[in-house]
Inverse folding.
């Protein structure tokens, strides 16, 4: 390939990737699902790479690069598929909502509710996907028919709490899982993020609850009976999470493998428990209720990032780390993730082979996981909240930016000091 042709092909691929990332950011404006656009542009870029190899490689070399990229995608896909199937089953049975209604008090002050909602969203997002945690947390506060201004505050806290809760466990956030699978941090390292993350949530709750002193009456909905099968599957889910953490630390068992084992145990147990019941739906059918848009989005994003590596652009991401210490660069990268989706940003920096200590990777994990909270379009939780709460818009959320920046900075500082313990 001549120099001019190589530059032209590189430019075409970079243009396609830029368009794909722009479409991710403006998804709520154009109403085209980002899973569709990323998958389209991701596969197109690799097809072009095969037709006109950028660096003159043979198709076999390009195939090797693609195979490596597909292996990363498959590992992430299978883990998320298993985890999301558990949640899809429990959610469809109303198990999670039922538990929430049972633990909520009848009367509570607005200030206490702020802390309670923040804590619930934080904890639930650690063991569930962010979309489910956001939807259930919002359902709780929206059932109270609050004033729109107050509802915006609760929604803001939920978005920040959901993003904060996922950073300390590989089951809670995709970027955390990606960083862990890249062997940059260990599970004991990640657990150090629990305290600073929780502290930042409580700080934000305290700031947002200033002047909120009224009492709220929580009307109890008619509670559904919790089936023994649902309780059993919930226990299998929790056991799978703890087994994943233990086996990964103690025996280096891949999390994907443990979660697939847990999923198979769920199928077999439910099959045994349901065999005498007249059920219209088989347990394995709940796989169809997974948010496949989310999974396809990750496939498209990782294909795009792999294409970026193929054209040699990822090395440019290290420039920020050449001019700033990793602690400062990571802080800025976190803020960047509010405008650029944190999944492609994390994937890009992992593939750029930046050299950092485990403590510095820990601050990076917090930054990319929570930094997206700075803008409403910066995280899946924000986009979901905006679609559910009419009063929550880009501009109304932007008014909370000072509170969010203070909370993010406190959490990041805590993550930095936690990293010194490694």
């Amino acid at each position: 390939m001549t120099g001019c042709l190589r530059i032209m092909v590189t430019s075409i691929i970079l243009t396609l990737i830029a368009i794909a990332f722009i479409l991710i950011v403006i998804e709520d404006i154009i109403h085209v699902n980002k899973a569709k656009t990323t998958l389209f542009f991701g596969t197109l870029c690799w097809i072009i790479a095969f037709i006109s190899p950028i660096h003159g490689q043979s198709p076999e070399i390009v195939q090797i690069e693609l195979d490596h990229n597909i292996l990363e995608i498959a590992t992430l896909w299978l883990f998320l598929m298993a985890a999301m199937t558990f949640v899809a089953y429990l959610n469809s049975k109303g198990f999670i909502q039922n538990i929430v209604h049972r633990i909520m008090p009848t009367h509570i002050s607005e200030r206490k509710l702020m802390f309670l909602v923040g804590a619930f969203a934080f904890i639930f997002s650690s063991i569930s996907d962010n979309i489910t945690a956001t939807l259930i947390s919002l359902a709780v506060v929206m059932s109270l028919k609050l004033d729109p201004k107050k509802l915006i505050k609760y929604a803001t806290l939920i978005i920040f709490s959901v993003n904060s809760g996922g950073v300390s466990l590989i089951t809670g956030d995709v970027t955390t899982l990606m960083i862990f699978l890249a062997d940059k941090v260990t599970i004991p390292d990640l657990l150090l993020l629990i305290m600073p993350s929780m502290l930042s949530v409580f700080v934000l709750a305290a700031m947002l609850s200033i002047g909120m002193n009224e009492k709220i009456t929580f009307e109890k909905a008619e509670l559904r009976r919790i089936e023994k099968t649902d309780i059993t599957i919930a226990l299998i889910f929790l056991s799978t999470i703890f087994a994943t953490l233990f086996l990964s630390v103690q025996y280096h068992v891949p999390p994907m493998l443990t979660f697939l084992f847990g999923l198979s145990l769920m199928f077999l147990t439910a099959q045994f428990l349901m065999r005498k019941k007249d059920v219209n739906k088989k347990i394995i059918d709940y796989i169809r209720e997974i948010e496949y848009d989310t999974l396809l989005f990750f496939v498209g994003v990782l294909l795009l990032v792999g294409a970026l590596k193929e054209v040699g652009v990822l090395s440019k991401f290290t420039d920020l780390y050449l001019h700033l210490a990793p602690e400062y660069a990571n802080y800025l990268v976190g803020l960047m993730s509010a405008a650029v989706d944190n999944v492609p940003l994390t994937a890009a920096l992992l593939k750029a082979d930046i050299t950092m200590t485990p403590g510095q990777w820990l601050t990076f994990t917090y930054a990319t996981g929570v930094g997206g909270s700075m803008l409403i379009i910066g995280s899946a939780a924000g986009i979901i909240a905006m679609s559910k709460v009419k009063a929550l818009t880009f501009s109304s959320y932007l008014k909370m930016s000072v509170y969010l920046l203070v909370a993010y900075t406190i959490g990041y500082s805590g993550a930095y000091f936690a990293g010194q313990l490694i």
